[in-house]
Queue: 2 jobs
Job 1
Amino acid sequence: MKTANTTVTITKEQLAPMPLVEYSSPITVIDTPQAEAEALSKIRRYPVVGFDTETKPSFRKGHPNKVALMQVSTDDESFLFRLNRLGFSDAMKEFVEDADTLKVGLSLKDDFHVMHRNSDFEPRGFIDLQKIVSQWRISDSSLQKIYGILFGQRISKGQRLSNWEAAELTPAQQKYAAIDAWACLVIYRHLTQGLFDPETSPYLTEVTPPMPQQPQTPQQ
């Protein structure tokens, strides 16, 4: 049996040839208050959902953008809330502050930092995958690498720097956004349901302890 001096990690070279993740569930783009209310009502029926946000990239220093898109994925559907059109409504604030709906994301500190440009809120009911994957000895922190380790597939990042405030989101943008939130939910379920054993992972690697530093000899 492997000792505790092991970690589960994957290289970019191991990740690159993996097949791309396919997403086939419905994607609903939300850009009206009525649609927002209906979507949030559906989402609240699920105890656990996936969560992510997208922001239009800013290439001008000192001119940060607000969150343009908030993605929430259930087991059956992904909802893309266009916050650049909806604003940050009281209903949305209530959702992100609701401790009863567990929202699973990754690098949530960054999401919250940008979301606070939209509105003031106190996030509750969130789980950050980066803070829990070490329980399964996974040392990688990117969504791509964690998903690759668990499922042998690669999440495309080709739309990451696209215009999330465009008049219409392209099918590629919609699928990219949906996958990022959905993947967080899938990873969380896989780990917490005991479906991943680090001992049998092909990416289990021995951790090489650092070489002890030799004391320096004083110069004469």
Job 2
Amino acid sequence: MRRILSFLVVLSMLISPVIAMESTQENDSRSYVLMETSSGTILKEKNKDLSVPPASITKVMTLLLIFDAVEEGKIKWDDLVTVSEHAASMGGSQVFMEAGEQQTVKDMVKCISISSANDATVAMAEHISGRESDFVNLMNKKASELGMNNTVFKNACGLNIDGHVSSAYDVALMSRELMLKHPDITQTSTTWMDSIIHKTRKGESEFGLTNTNKMLKWYNGITGLKTGYTPEAKHCVSATAERNGLELIAVVLGGVNSKTRFREAGALLDYGFANYELKKGPQAGEVIAEVPILKGLKDSVEATVKKSVNFIAAKSEQSPNYEYQVELNPEITAPITKGQEVGYVVCRLDDAEVGRGILVSLEDVDKSGLFNLIKSLFTKNKNSENSESEVKDQTIDQDQSTNLDN
């Protein structure tokens, strides 16, 4: 009996460290970032700039470029996309399209966003750029514009290739761009199940699509966005969510299993919603500044922000020291057109910059000169005459009204 007890004690001593180690590893992704969407403020991070394989989260950039192409009029949602031999041969996560099969851009996007389809992704890359390699050049160009300094794309879909890397911070940057610029993506990214119709030489058949983002089933406020997995990248997710106007992005790269990446992303989002709130800064349409103008028919023009400026603040700060500063462009000279940039506004919270917005003119201001001066005087006189006429008409109406009453 003693031998059995001794054996159990020794066994428990040997197993306990292993269990503890596995438990630690299970909750230890390679890297993560929690970002507030509107400002891009990082609320929490680990190894945010570590370059690692991103797997199918790569498709966030592909989706961004697809939506950009539609917005720019280069393609349309109802355009038919023909699947090439190359696209049909992708393997991995796919919807089993055949070479020569055609689907609309809209349905291709459903396949990419919901089912993470590699064949649909490459077909769209070829549809936009002719060749996948040319589309990848666009991806890297856009990444550079967004400041994704630890990213190199080698393909459009995220299948593992040496040197195809990104970082948690970079993934958050492109996720933010997609969510801000094309918020309609949430209509697809939050769809749990859908379908497409395969049209091939064999006839027509329905193919079901199920979303790879399981957080849609349990996380309150989830709005997207993309999952990824390869043996090299491990389990990844870029999870976006919104509550009470506060939008967050939680990126987890290199999770040891699927459930863990979702749980860790959920914990990051919970942390953000529990500890931070969105504050309103200067809003579009509000008069923010009176801007002096040189050589204009008016000495100044009212200006507002091009886009409303909001910022993030910790809930623990009861009375944060908030202010904003207006910085105008030097020597603003007429003519000025409505919407013209005239400077910018900087929002500060406890002396730290938390937001920045472009100032634009709220109206046109013509250049001063003899012709414009005469035109201005004529307009003023005409308006004055119209005003006097309106006063007389009102007086007559009042007199007639009085006679009728009597």
